[in-house]
Each structure stands twice: as C-alpha cells, then as structure tokens.
Amino acid sequence: MGQPAEKQRRATYADLGAVPPNKVAELIRGTLHVFPRPAPRHASAESALQGELFGPFQRGRGGPGGWRILVEPELHFPDPDAPGEVDVLVPDLAGWRAERMPELPKTAYFALAPDWICEVLSASTEKVDRDEKMPIYAREGVRYAWLVDPIARTLEAHVLDADRRWGPAAVHRDAARVRVAPFEAIELDLSVLWAE
Questions:
Q1: Closest C-alpha among 93, 89, 193, 114 to residue 149
Q2: pLDDT digit string (tens) for 125-175?
Q3: Where does the Putative restriction endonuclease domain start and stop, copy by copy (predicted)?
C-alpha cells in the first residue's frame, strides 16, 4: 500500500508578498498563480481598449460618462472554501458604474465586485482566465465579461443571467465595428486592438 498523498498547503494572502514585482500574482481558491508581465500584443490590446473606453465612459468625452475604468485592479472576494481567506484576482481591466462606487476605496484593493471586467488572453493565462476566474466573476455578480484574444483577433462578450451563469458569448472578430454591452453607447473599431 502506498503512502497517502501529502496535502498541499493552501496559499494565503501573505504568500503574495513573496512574488517578485515583475510578475502578476493571483490567489484562487488557495492556489497561488504567478504569471509573467503581459507580452507586447497583450499589453497593446489592453492599452488600446482602455484608451477607447476611458474618454467616453470615465470622462464623458463623446459618450455618457458614469464609469470608473481601471487597469489591473486587485479584487478581493471571500473564498467560500476557507472562511477568513480571500480570492485575489487581477483582471486586465475592470469598470464600476460610478453610482455603485462614487469614491475609490482607501484600501490597496477593491472588495466591491466590478460591473464589467476584461481579460486579455495569452497562452500562459487563458486556462486560468476561462476555467477559474470566470466562475468567480459569475459568483460575485460581475454582470459583463469580455475576453479579448489579440492573437486570434477576437472579442468575446459574456453577460451574466439571473441565475449567475454566463449566457452564450457573442464573438466579434478582426476589424468588425461593434456596439457591445455595457459600452454600446459607442461603436468600437476592433482593428484598433490589433494594431501592430
């Protein structure tokens, strides 16, 4: 008979402090995930999308305003498997309607779930983004999630239903010009995201 497998220690928020500053770290259900900083195409798509949304939705220039859109905010959600511990997620972009978050928190993290998140997919992050983070975003009531793939040149738009499940994704490709919730007030030219 073999020996029982040794139970792996659950990572905690304290373990994030040991991660080098040139890495992105997330804590999901007691597992520490450490990723390299985004590659150039990833960073370019993230920056371009933030630029397209910031003026009309955060500043109200050419759009309705009423949003707080942030790059790589640290989100803290209670870990249902470990009372007192948290899941720590860092989406590439996140947005809160200003009426839900009239002031920024005093903490270094956000405990209030965003209204919208965007993950820019890469080979090193896609599985975690899709299989681990998307269910947590649904559990926490994030209403809209976009998955942007700069290599496949796609934007997948997901909307949460009343049962906190993601409905079928609307997939937009290449140089499409689209209006996508929750930012349908402007037309988004996807070719801007794939600029070389």
A1: 193
A2: 999 999 999 999 999 999 999 999 999 999 999 999 999 999 999 999 999
A3: 19-190
Beta bridge partners of 78: 86
End-to-end, the C-alpha distance of the chain in Å comes to 58
Q: What is the pLDDT of residues 27-65, one digit of tens each?
A: 999 999 999 988 899 999 999 999 999 999 999 898 899
d(CA 190, CA 168): 20
User: How far is residue 57's CA from residue 193's CA, in Å, rounded to a whole number?
Assistant: 18
Structural tokens at position 106: 């005093």
pLDDT band at 6 (very low <50, low <70, confident <90, very high): low
Which H, E and C letters describe 7-33, residue by residue? CCCCCCHHHHHHCCCCEEEEEECCEEE
What residue segments make up the domains of the chain, in order of their start?
13-194
Residues in the chain: 196
pLDDT value of position 7: 65
Which CATH architecture group holds 13-194? Alpha-Beta Complex (3.90)
| Secondary structure of residue 112 in the 3-state scheme | coil
Cross-strand bridge partners of residue 24? 35
